[in-house]
């Protein structure tokens, strides 16, 4: 509220382009916080909404159901690995994490082990801004100091150190193993972002870490929650990031790209074992019931988005091509003295700077160059819609390199 940075009014959006009120067009390199995988104003997604609104825009999901929710749930069950076959449709990614945490706590209550109510998370993680979700975000950068004494107290293991695509170091999981072993009688679940830690620093870690975590959860009778809100639906090069490690969580959170950015919607999937066990507890059901859960409009556009993705050659023609182009065109940035690292995975490209990015200085320069990026902390990152053309992606990477050079970075 005090000395705010500039904001840019958008009057329309189409494909990968945002049109500002002054007539300028920007190429969107952010997919509106990673959600708009099919681009803006897609005719097929527009049609799904138009058809649905003619029958109903909303109806409560307590004691009633409807075809859009049924269709979406069936697609999610078919798309995700077995045995994730129970779906809870909710409002947003952060709420899906809240739901996942409630599932885990109620599960152990129903099994007569109420002391298992804490979470084990990873440093560098991000899971949302509501209270339970915030409690498992990074304890240094995740606003904990502002809410000390109010937030639930969780356990935190160090951020995985082994990078994706580099040799595995067995010592990387040692501290995690010690924590889960020492506190398994208190831990209801481990929660993490598989393979890619997003808003906590755009860090890509080794799939073996995830495999080891799954094994340790099994060994110590702890549930595993994977937060695929940012990574789901192809962003890392597999449909879900867990596939890089060949593991299946007990609870899976999805959001963001679920509706390709059209409406807010999320899903929390779990196994029949978890769902039926918690339903046999004292409450008799999962204690969550959002007003707009399974909103028909959101479900209809989500189903259309999933169908559009599955019918396309999303991996070879989209994500793989974006990955290779980002590797080729960002590689030279590592030569700049203020650049610490350049890394790419799937349709994610990251330039990590030596020091925090001056957003007030860089963002207007990016806008002047005809692109929209929103850096944070030390990261300048690119997560474009999958439909971006090579020439538009080159405009983004060229502008980033040029601005960094011009600004003496």
TrEMBL record:
Q: Which GO terms describe its molecular function?
A: adenosylmethionine-8-amino-7-oxononanoate transaminase activity; pyridoxal phosphate binding
What residues correspond to the site Participates in the substrate recognition with KAPA and in a stacking interaction with the adenine ring of SAM?
Answer: 3
Supply the alphabetized keyword list: Aminotransferase, Biotin biosynthesis, Cytoplasm, Pyridoxal phosphate, S-adenosyl-L-methionine, Transferase
Query: Cross-referenced SUPFAM superfamilies, in alphabetical order?
Result: PLP-dependent transferases (SSF53383)
Residues holding pyridoxal 5'-phosphate: 93-94, 227, 290-291
| EC assignment | 2.6.1.62
Point out the coiled-coil segments of this chain. Answer: none
InterPro entries named among the record's database cross-references? Aminotrans_3 (IPR005814), Aminotrans_3_PPA_site (IPR049704), BioA (IPR005815), PyrdxlP-dep_Trfase (IPR015424), PyrdxlP-dep_Trfase_major (IPR015421), PyrdxlP-dep_Trfase_small (IPR015422)
Cite a GO CC annotation. Answer: cytoplasm
- Per UniProt, where does substrate bind? 33, 126, 256, 289, 374
Q: What class of enzyme is it?
A: transferase
Alphabetically, which GO biological process terms does the record hold? biotin biosynthetic process
Which one Pfam family would you cite for this protein?
Aminotran_3
Q: In which pathway does it act?
A: Cofactor biosynthesis; biotin biosynthesis; 7,8-diaminononanoate from 8-amino-7-oxononanoate (SAM route): step 1/1
Q: How does it assemble?
A: Homodimer.
Family per similarity comment: Belongs to the class-III pyridoxal-phosphate-dependent aminotransferase family. BioA subfamily.
Function per UniProt: Catalyzes the transfer of the alpha-amino group from S-adenosyl-L-methionine (SAM) to 7-keto-8-aminopelargonic acid (KAPA) to form 7,8-diaminopelargonic acid (DAPA). It is the only aminotransferase known to utilize SAM as an amino donor.
Question: Any idea what this protein is called?
Answer: Adenosylmethionine-8-amino-7-oxononanoate aminotransferase
Name the source organism.
Acidihalobacter aeolianus
Tell me the gene name: bioA
């Amino acid at each position: 509220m005090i000395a705010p940075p500039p904001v840019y009014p958008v009057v329309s959006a189409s494909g990968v382009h945002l049109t500002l009120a002054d007539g300028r067009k920007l190429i969107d390199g952010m997919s509106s916080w990673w959600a708009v995988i099919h681009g803006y104003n897609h005719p097929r997604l527009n049609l799904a909404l138009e058809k649905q609104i003619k029958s109903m825009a909303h109806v409560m999901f307590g004691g009633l159901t409807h075809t859009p929710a049924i269709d979406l749930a069936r697609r999610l069950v078919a798309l995700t690995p077995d045995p994730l076959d129970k779906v809870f449709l909710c409002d947003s990614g952060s709420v899906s994490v809240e739901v996942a945490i409630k599932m885990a706590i109620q599960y152990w209550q129903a099994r007569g082990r109420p002391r298992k109510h804490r979470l084990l998370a990873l440093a560098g993680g991000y899971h949302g801004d509501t209270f339970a979700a915030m409690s498992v975000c990074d304890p240094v950068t995740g606003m904990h100091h502002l809410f000390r004494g109010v937030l639930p107290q969780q356990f935190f293991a160090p951020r995985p150190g082994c990078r994706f695509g580099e040799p595995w170091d067995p010592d990387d999981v040692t501290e995690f193993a010690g924590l889960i072993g020492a506190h398994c009688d208190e831990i209801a679940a481990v929660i993490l972002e598989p393979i890619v830690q997003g808003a906590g620093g755009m860090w890509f870690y080794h799939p073996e870490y995830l495999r080891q975590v799954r094994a340790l959860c099994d060994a110590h009778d702890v549930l595993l929650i994977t937060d695929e809100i940012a990574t789901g639906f192809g962003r890392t090069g597999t449909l879900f990031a867990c596939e890089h490690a060949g593991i299946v969580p007990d609870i899976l959170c999805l959001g963001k790209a679920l509706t390709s950015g059209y409406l807010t919607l999320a899903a929390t999937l779990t196994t029949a074992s978890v769902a039926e066990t918690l339903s046999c507890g004292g409450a008799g059901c999962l204690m969550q019931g959002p007003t707009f859960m399974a909103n028909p409009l959101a479900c209809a556009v989500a189903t259309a988005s999933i169908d559009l993705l599955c019918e396309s050659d999303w991996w070879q023609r989209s994500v793989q091509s974006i990955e290779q182009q980002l590797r080729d065109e960002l590689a030279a940035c590592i030569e700049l003295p203020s650049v610490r690292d350049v890394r790419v995975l799937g349709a994610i490209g990251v330039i990590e700077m030596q020091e925090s990015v001056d957003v007030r200085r860089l963002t207007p320069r990016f806008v002047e160059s005809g692109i929209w990026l929103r850096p944070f902390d030390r990261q300048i990152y690119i997560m474009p819609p999958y439909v971006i053309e090579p020439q538009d992606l080159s405009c983004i990477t060229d502008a980033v390199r040029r601005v960094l050079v011009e600004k003496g970075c």
